[in-house]
Amino acid sequence: MDWTMKLATAALFLGLTMVVTRDEDEGDMCLYEALSDTDAVLCKGLEVFYPELGNIGCMFVPDCNNYRQKITHWAEPIVKFPGALEGIDIKKGKLQGQELSPYQPPSPPAKTGFHRYQFFIYLQEGKNISLHSKENKTRASWKMDKFLNRFHLSEPEASTQFMTQNYQDSPNYQTPGTGSSEPRDKPK
């Protein structure tokens, strides 16, 4: 096997390997689980960095170190588009332009399972983009397909997503005062 084939095989192996870190508080392993192949189709060139977590694009938020609870309070992540043209700030995670609505951290309701949090980069061609007043009320009050059609936005230049659930639904959640948790379903 020549060196390029070995390099490609090693890259593929590393891409399929799950990242594991040690949970310092509990001495347990912290598993960073990749999204399924079906969900990974949306993962095209964007990186999403949160403090303590690193890049969680195309991942489940780990169920350790209270990450699923912490993420509901953190400031907005750093979003990088490494495939952007040279000299563009978004390549380094520095977003510029008009903010249409303020950042709202992931906050999935209890007992609703895993929720997807998606990020898209579209090429904007000249037209100013704005939200209608009813669209600006909550995340769920507008429809993406109508928004894209209104501003003639086609396929995204880059995208990614991550999934998380309410921290109280996590398998490692301990009910306050009991010191134990009930077994719960793992991500599917």
What's the quick description here?
The protein is of the alpha+beta class. Helices cover 15% and strands 16% of the residues.
Report what the structure shows.
- The protein is α+β, with helices and mostly antiparallel strands.
- It has a domain at 34-122 and 157-169.
- The protein has 4 helices and 7 strands; from the N terminus they run αββαββαββαβ.
- The strands form 3 sheets. It has a 3-stranded antiparallel beta sheet with strand order 4-3-5, with no helix packed on it.
- A hairpin with a 3-residue loop joins β3 and β4 (54-55).
- The longest helix is centred in the N-terminal third of the chain and has 14 residues, at 3-16.
- The two termini are 36 Å apart.
- Residues 1-27 and 180-188 have low confidence and may be disordered.
Descriptive terms for the model:
single chain; 188 residues; alpha+beta; three-stranded antiparallel β-sheet; two-stranded antiparallel ribbon; 4 helices; 7 strands; 16% strand; globular; disordered N terminus; disordered C terminus; PEBP; PEBP-like_sf; PEBP_euk
Poorly predicted runs are 1-27, 180-188
What is the rounded distance between the termini? 36 Å
The radius of gyration computed from the alpha-carbon positions, rounded to a whole number of angstroms, is 19 Å
Overall 3D form: globular
Structural class, from secondary structure content? alpha+beta
Helix content: 10-25%
Number of helices: 4
How many DSSP-defined strands?
7
Order of helices and strands: HEEHEEHEEHE
Strand order of the largest sheet: 4-3-5
Sketch the major β-sheet: 3 strands, antiparallel
Beta percentage is: 15-25%
Average pLDDT value?
Answer: 79
Biased composition (Polar residues): 160-181
Region (Disordered): 160-188
Signal peptide: 1-22
Keywords: Signal
